[in-house]
Amino acid sequence: MASKVRKAVIPAAGLGTRFLPATKAVPKELLPIVDTPTIQYIVEECAGSGIDTVVLVTAKGKSRIVDHFDIYPELEEKLDKEGKPELAEALRRTSSMVRMVMVRQGTPRGLGHAVLCAKEIVGDEPFAVLLGDDLVDAKTPCLKQMIDVYERHRKSVVALMEVDESDVSKFGICGGQEIEPRVFNLDAMVEKPKLEQAPSRTAIVGRYILSPAIFRILENQAPGKGGEIQLTDAMATLMRQEGFIGYQFEGDRYDAGDKFGFLQANLAYGLKRPDIAPKLIDYMKSVLTQRGVIRNG
Strand, coil or helix: what is 34? Predict the structure, then answer.
């Protein structure tokens, strides 16, 4: 793989059942972390990593995601007239960060199938995949870190993190040898194994850089766990054919698709905001004091 990574795929066709009833009418990807939709943070990470085209793989009822990234000149003009140019500029940035392309996933058949839906737009070049539930707060965008690793090794790259034994069966798990700090040459990938069958406690997180050869593999991939086309199974085949790199990224990861993780992300991103942090800290102290967790003074 000699091409630069210019395109990214964001699967966004899930029903978001873990957040019902909120997601009955609002796509889960638009649920806000403080005041910014989760998926906007993902697209901002793409833009900050040099991506110029983002392919959104959506489904029925997800058109509002596309609307969010569309231009809205009437609202921008209204904000300018009301003396709120910073809000108007924020809207303009949202619609101009990258080129957005939408593809429909007719029948949900797993993450691997969602990625395969982007084949015609991605073409014959390496590309990134970012899961909309995974937020990574990092000084250097997580995807940019991975692209740097890809450019050194010219192999597909997956983001990794260590998880507790109790969480091993919730993730794809990798095994391999460390070849430089945080970088591993992988020799095993297993989708949601039992602890005794796992090659390690090193889990795959929702960031990938993939060779276009993954499409051919996905087209012939048999259903795996849950009867779905599993991306991890296809990546294991790609690993045997071309090799695969694992990278333990620098940054804090939040699972915004989980209720507790969503609350964690809101607290963490709220504490980064100078207009919110002081009040939030005072409130958290008062709640912990009332519950007897901490004492006054």
Answer: coil
